[in-house]
Structure to design on (381 residues):
């Protein structure tokens, strides 16, 4: 008889301990979940090793989700309390908040502007897709836990009103969570199917720098009957190299546009506008050269003058083609842009700048060509 009593006492105490563990598990999950939510809210892709940090966070979310599943699986009959319902509601809200913040992170990826962050951009897309999947799994496990609690609660009659209220809140939060996850995934699919123009910025930036150097050098040159052949030949060689690089970049843009759209980066627009301004300067320099050559033509050796006029015509052609290549590149990017709505004002501004500057450049080039043709005609070159 004593042994039976001892056994009953042990079972009773075990039951009390088990029930206490269930309530405690819920509270612990709320604390752990809120910590994860705070980590996610404080996360940014604009930090060193961002994708590595996101990977760690994703793993923590997966571990948390497994903890929820374990608590659900080990659950036995117990008396639900208001505190338990509060815990379920808190878990529901925190996963909803995390899903909403995942949208913000997906949009943060579109703000990456530095070429050096291109790897982060690519890896970030994968990390956010994994995050949305993990948050979705967390939401499912929390919902399963709530359902399990309803089944295992032995006082469902007494808690009926509170349980119904909790279910309504969970249903609403789940709808928001699912919607947020879908938006996040759609954003990432959009980015993964498109190429951010920051991929072009390194090459484009180098072209901008080199064209600017050429422009400054051309403005510093003062032609005379003795140096014009050498100076113009050197400048023409630089334009040939720049034209080759510009054409190669255009070919890359055209090739990429054949099988993917572009996500336009603000720095790309800035550089396209800057290039068009520099070409105006190049055209103006050529026009000034033409005027100088026309003035000193009578004092210049015929052979030198002939070579100089030929080189000038080639220069006007090279610079004109380069200017046209940049316009083609911009048009191809704009046509294939999948964020044209977000960047509409900047794109329109860049197009206006380019159109104005191209008109000025063409005017200078046409004037230069006309003067050279006149010199060739007048001196029988």
């Amino acid at each position: 008889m004593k042994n039976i009593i001892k056994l009953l006492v042990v079972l009773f105490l075990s039951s009390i301990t088990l029930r206490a563990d269930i309530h405690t598990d819920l509270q612990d999950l709320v604390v752990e979940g809120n910590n994860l939510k705070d980590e996610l809210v404080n996360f940014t892709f604009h930090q060193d090793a961002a994708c590595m940090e996101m990977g760690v966070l994703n793993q923590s979310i997966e571990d948390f989700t497994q903890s929820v599943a374990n608590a659900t699986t080990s659950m036995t009959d117990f008396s639900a309390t208001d505190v338990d319902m509060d815990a379920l509601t808190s878990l529901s809200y925190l996963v909803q908040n995390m899903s909403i913040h995942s949208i913000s992170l997906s949009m943060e990826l579109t703000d990456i502007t530095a070429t050096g962050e291109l790897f982060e951009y690519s890896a970030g897309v994968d990390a956010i897709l994994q995050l949305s999947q993990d948050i979705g799994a967390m939401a499912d496990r929390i919902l399963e836990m709530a359902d399990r609690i309803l089944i295992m609660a032995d006082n469902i009659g007494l808690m009926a009103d509170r349980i119904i209220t909790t279910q309504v809140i969970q249903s609403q939060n789940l709808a928001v969570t699912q919607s947020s996850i879908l938006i996040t995934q759609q954003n990432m699919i959009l980015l993964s199917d498109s190429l951010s123009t920051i991929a072009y910025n390194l090459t484009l930036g180098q072209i901008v720098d080199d064209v600017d150097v050429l422009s400054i050098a051309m403005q510093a040159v003062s032609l005379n009957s003795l140096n014009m052949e050498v100076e113009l030949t050197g400048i023409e060689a630089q334009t040939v190299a720049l034209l080759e690089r510009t054409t190669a970049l255009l070919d890359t843009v055209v090739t990429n546009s054949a099988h993917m759209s572009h996500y336009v980066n603000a720095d790309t627009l800035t550089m396209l506008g800057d290039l068009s301004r520099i070409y105006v300067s190049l055209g103006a320099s050529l026009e000034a050269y033409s005027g100088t050559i026309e003035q000193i033509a009578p004092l210049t050796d015929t052979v030198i003058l002939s070579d100089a006029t030929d080189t000038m015509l080639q220069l006007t052609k090279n610079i004109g083609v380069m200017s046209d290549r940049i316009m083609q590149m911009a048009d191809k990017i704009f046509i294939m842009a999948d964020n044209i709505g977000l960047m509409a004002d900047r794109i329109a501004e860049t197009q206006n700048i380019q159109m104005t500057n191209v008109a000025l450049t063409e005017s200078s080039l046409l004037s230069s060509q006309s003067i050279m043709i006149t010199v060739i005609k007048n001196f029988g070159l």
Observations:
- The longest strand covers residues 194-196.
- Residues 2-192 form one domain.
- The chain has two domains: 2-192, 196-378.
- DSSP finds ten helices and two strands in the chain.
